[in-house]
Structure formats: C-alpha cells, structure tokens
Amino acid sequence: MRYISTRGDQTERAFSEILLEGLAPDGGLYMPTHYPVVDKAALAKWRTLPYPELALEILCLYVDDIPRDDLSAIVRRTYAPDIFGSPEIVPLQRLDTGVSLLKLSNGPTLAFKDIAMQLLGNLFEYELQRRGEVLNILGATSGDTGSAAEYAMRGKQGIRVFMLSPHGRMSAFQQAQMFSLQDRNIHNIAIDGVFDDCQDIVKVMSNDLETKRSLKIGTVNSINWARILAQVVYYFWGYFQATRDNQERVSFAVPSGNFGNICAAHVARMMELPVEHLILATNENDVLHEFFSSGEYRVRKSHETFETSSPSMDISKASNFERFIFDALDRNATRTRHFFADELPKTGRFRLTPKEYARIRTFGFVSGKSTHADRLATIRDTWTRYSLMIDPHTADGLKVGRERSLTGVQTLALETALPAKFAATIREAINRDPDRPKSLAGLEDLPMRSVTMPARAEIVKQFLIDHCNDRAL
Ligand SMILES: *Cc1c(COP(=O)(O)O)cnc(C)c1O
Question: Which one of 65, 145, 306, 403 is most buried, by most CB atoms within 10 A?
C-alpha cells in the first residue's frame, strides 16, 4: 500500500514514511491509493478473531513496510486487557432490540482516543528505534487529546512530550490526569492564557521550519493516518459483535468533531463492511450537520464557536473532512485543492454543485444535531431506563442515532468517553456523581508535576532547548 495527498501530490509514500508526518508537503492529507475490499470469505474468517488479531489483519492491508511479526507484537502489546480493562477491548452493550453501545472508552484516559493513541505510541517507538532517531512531540490541549497522548507516550524510548494547556482552565480531573504523570519524558506546561494561546505557540514553533528541524518537533494530531486506521478496526469488531452473519447491515451513530472517528467508519464502509447508514451527530457546533443537509461547508469563526457541555466536539472546522471530500469527489485532487486551499481561506466556505451533492448522498451519511437540553434528557433517559450512566458526547450520538435509526436495522452508538470525566453535566442531568473506575480514586490528591509559563513562544522554545538533551531517554 502506498499513500498520496488529497491535493494532487502524486508521490507515493510508504506507511512508515507518513507515520511520523503531519500534513503532506502540498498541505493535503495523506490517503491510501485505494481501499482494499474485504470479501465475504475474509469477513467470515475475521468474525471469530479476538480484537488484537482482527487489528493485525486490518493493519496488514495498509502497512507493508513493517514485518508482520513485529506488527503482531505491537498490536498484542497495545490491545491488552490490562490496558483496556477487558479481553474484548471494546465491549458491546445492548440497550434495546435496535440499539447498542459500542464501548470505546475503557483505556487509560477514559476516552475513545486511547484506542488510536496507544497504538500510535507503540508504532512511534518502534519506528524511531528502527531509524535511531528521537522525536519531541509538541501539542496543545484543552483536555482529552493531551491526556491520551501523554498516556500513550509515557516511558517510551526516543520520545518526549511537551504538552501546553491553559493554566487553571481544565477540569480538576483532566488536570490531575495529566499532571500526576511522573514519567521523565512527559512535560506538562501550563500557559497563562486560554487554549487558543497554547495553540498559537504550537503553530509559531511548527511553522518555523528551522526550529522544527533542529528541535525534532513532531505532533500527534487527529489528521495522522495511523490514528484513522486504528479506528477502522472497531467498526469491523462492532459489526461482528452485533450481528450473527455477514448478510445483516448495521448503522453506526458517531458523535463527531474533527471528523476523525466517522472518517474511519467511512473507510470501513469503502472496504465493503455491510453498513446501512453512518449517522453523524454534532452538538451546537453544527458545521458538519449543515454540510450534509445543504451541500455547503461553512467554517465558523472563533466567536461563532460555542462552548458546550460536550466540549470535545466544539470545533469551528473539521480537520479530517478533506479526506471524505476527496473520496466523495471521486478523488479529484484539483477540485479538492480548489475547495480547501482557495475557497476556504478566501471566503470561509464552499458549496458543492447539485451533481456533486447528489453524489455525496451515495456514501451512506445522514446527520443530526443535539443540544444541551437533548444531552441532559438523553443522559437522564438512559439512566432511568437502563441504570446506565453515559457521558455528554455519547449522549449526543445516542440522541441522533435514535432519531435517524431505521426499523429492522441495528444502530451501534459509539461511546466516546466515560461520564467520570464530565461530572458537572452528569450532576445537572441526574443529580448524582458519576461512577469512577477504582484505579482513579483519589486522582486529584496525587503529587502533581507541571511548570507554568507566560504565553510566549520564545520562552516555551527555550524550555524545549533546555530539555531536549535530557538523558531521560
Ligand atoms: C475527540 C472526541 C470526539 C470527536 O471525535 P472526532 O474524531 O474529532 O470527530 C467525540 N467525543 C469525545 C469524548 C472525544 O474526545
């Protein structure tokens, strides 16, 4: 398998070449040259595999420059019961005849991002060792992504993490999750400012190519192809858990922000997993619902982006969306480039032609929106009916999933975080504290490790320089 850019650069790259990269050199996203089709015989064979073996089969279709035995060791180490809490790794819980929850949030940071990030940590370590290189991961976080990255990279050879977060603005739980890590290769940097200040510093340093090269700066952002690939696995897995044979079709309901999770669902469908609908749920930040309802993609300005009670879906634009548009335009890179490199920067929007929009509708997507009131009602309803607590993001997916589900087709709603991370909203909905996994009792009382800095790139840069030669690795 080789990888090309969505914006026309036809240079074909191997998996290990794009693994540690962000954007393609022409500013596009990396895509596989084609999607391997999984025929009935392979589906039948895969149905009975344990999670790590299924992951190996799917990864092998997209990764041909890491020996199968090495890849096998990596997936076994990643998808282990002691990391994900059960031998299933991703359990399926039936709610009623038509609707199930696909439980993706039992990793170390209690959110589905662990599933991809834990694999990425092991793949990065492997590839860096193979090359004899080191990497300094620089990121900004307001919560979920930063902690998932730190738990994936802690103690890894050849990798240091420098994670910027807005000082005093994360929940006590989120902050404790990150700051309690004592690993020498993890650096928590609390910035006196808001999330955008943190992100600006990362941008300044990443756009300075000289600094980027000399300090060996890399990222783990959601546009990384390996993250999407890791997520493809649980769509197959969920399908096998929910169905008896490979004739049945199912729908997936996905609470969406940057379009990473549902992009993986799209890839699974392109591989001919029997999918009826991909049900995309947004919160009040409904850029994507608007697109699927109208054919117009209009990114939001920061003052138009709402802070909601499902904060991991508070996006102004969806960073993986270009991948889907590329496929939906029949891989026309000229047109994709026109939309994303010309129209969007110039006008903040683009609109498909009626013919293009008609074509989009053949990809199985339907969409809907969920608000704060919907979220509370869904959390309450799920608690009353099943004595089950769900988090606000999962509630958005479940609400829209129920709305758009078809009789006779099972809907698998993706659980993307555990309620323990969002105590305030749970209390508002059902007037009680969320359960917390035993291993995290007393988290906020652990010793914390972080440094605080003003929001200035040159100070952060100096900190990196000072710590880049740590012998901790
Ligand atoms: C990141 C995240 C999402 C959104 O996923 P995307 O891949 O960005 O669409 C939804 N829910 C939770 C809890 C998340 O952390």
Answer: 145
User: Is residue 107 lining ligand 1, measured as CB closer than 6 Å?
Assistant: no
117 lies in a domain? no
Angle (CA) 455-456-461 rounded to 5° is 125
How many domains are there within the chain?
A: 1
Domain of 232 in residue numbering reads as 88-110+225-430
- Mark the ranges of the chain whose per-residue pLDDT is less than 70: 469-473
Distance 125 CA to ligand 1 centre (A): 25
- Distance from residue 463's CA to the centre of ligand 1 (Å): 30
Rounded Cα gap, residues 128 and 207, in angstroms? 23
- Please, what is the Cα angle at 254 between 306 and 220, to 5 degrees? 75
Q: What is the pLDDT of residue 301?
A: 87
Contact in structure between 320 and 263 (CB atoms under 8 Å): yes
Q: What would the pLDDT profile of 25-77 be if each residue is shown by its tens digit? A: 999 999 999 999 999 999 999 999 999 999 999 999 999 999 999 999 999 99
The active-site residue, picked from 40, 45, 103, 113, is 113
| CATH value at residue 245 | 3.40.50.1100
